[in-house]
Design a protein that fits this description.
Length: about 625
Amino acid sequence: MRKAFLFIGFLAFAFISKAQPYTSRLGRFKVDQIRGCAPLTVNITSTSFPGNAGCTAGTPCIMNFDGTGSCPPNASCQNVIQFTYTTAGTYKLSVLYQSIGADDITITVDPNTPPPFDIFTCAGDKVEIKITDSFYDSYAIDFNDDGTIDTSIPSGNNQIAMFSYGSAGNYNISVKGKKLNAANNCNANVQPFKALTALPIPSISTLLAVDTVSLQLGFTPQTNIEYHANIAYNNASNFQQYQTLYAANSLTIPNLTLNKNYYCFELSSYDPCANTDTYSSPVCSHEFSLAKASGVDQLSWQTASMGISTIQITRNNTNLTSVAGTATNYNDAAIVCKTEYCYQLISKYPGGATSTSLQKCVTSFLIDTPTPINNTSAIVSSAQVDLAWLQDPAFVTTSYNVFRSQNGGAYVLQKAVPTKLYTDATYSEGYCYKISYTDNCDNASVQGLASCPIILNGSADDTNEVILHWSQYKGWAAGVKSYTIQKFNQQGQLLQTINAGTDTTYTDTQVDAVNQVVLYKITANANQAGVSVSISNEIKVVKGVNLFYPTAFNPDSKVAVVNRTFTVKGHYISKLELQVFDRWGSLVFFSDKNEPWDGRRDGINMPDATYVWTAQGTDLNGSSFKKAGTVILIRK
């Protein structure tokens, strides 16, 4: 039963009252402190007593603060009235008088250890703290860390204090300890706290069967919340408290019989201020059994299905299927003989919680003829091709045989591989492939469908339209659903994705003034779900500069459609130099800045005539080009 201690007001006096002088053993002198945390400074407040003038300049005394004769640095031991103890321990402070001898008092210096405490969140913006320390005689609690002691409680066994904040929010709680008759100089333990109007509804994240006799419950706790874990046997209604959890995110429950029973758990956020619980939804384990028959593995289980969305069944740590949350059995007929299968159940709850059963294994038996491999995908890259294929999961194999044919010839065995992947590093156009395998019952399949990689060709015409054509992909039982064209720039960045449907030709008419060099490849998409794509070889198309220019111009024309200047333009030009010569070969115009000629030389109009021009430069691909021609200057 929890007890709340709210020592407010007069109990805080012990922490804020002024230090009182303490008298030495024989009553000859007084000090302001006899106990405190390191570092502790002690002052001798009086050295006289009735009938004695005390320690003066004329009658000095010898002070010994720690029993070794130590004095403050750079000072003698005569008439010293202050000393700071830096190390925890018990010391004898003595004063030696000239005429009457010595007197002493015991000084206790405690380790300066902030007291530990636990914080428990309550609803209604309240908090409860438990002092887990018993070293100090009393503890001052500042729930707002604002310098004001809100509560003071004595030492005891897990003393409790409660406090109500005005509103939800973030606060700091400070707890300082103090020994009886000690200075109030010990360090405080300050911890952050977030006040909540309502406690959060907890949720179990995982329930895992560790072995046949233990379960592990996992959850994500919130800071400063105390949780109660409750258990029910073979039902999800009659719960009893199992364990209290604080600052933990998991719980292991031993001494169970998972092969005969199932167990349900719920978690609650406990409010110690109101002695109430906020409960999670229950999560339950499985009583799981596994048997085998010819051609089928038989799974059966019992659990409380309330709240379960689906039950996922894994086989050999891979998802096999999912069944309804109310299901209690499943028959797996997709098995291979002489193969061990290990099954596990994972109940899935709304919100993401899961319950995972024990894993149980059985060696299945079945004799059948393996089905051929009729879905092989091919991806061409550089001078190699990567093959990937699907195999009927009802059959298990340790290796596959890859056969290759060249230009319609016989299929010749290339290699046996352990996985459904093969890379032919010597690929060449015209190669096709077939796959066969032998299952773990030594039954051999026939060679499957031929897989012939896509061969892509293409070029740019005089207008820089790119014409693509490619071979149909062969290698899928259900055929090709569609082809996708991917276009990249020279740096490999994807520029465009084009759906070509089932066509095997395409003309790219898109105007692109930036990318002179483009790369293309074709992706075939299968009609059958689950079949990976096949990708063609990649081709590079370099578009031409395609210079264009007028054959005549009239600088004085008033007609808009008549060229008034002469210039040479084109596609993908990085640099261009234009020169114009008269019929005697004299240079009349030069520009390397893409400027037009307006028919003048040095500001003077040139006469009507035929002029020779040359244009040379480099394109965006870094290639040089040069072109020459004539143009007629007409002013009439």
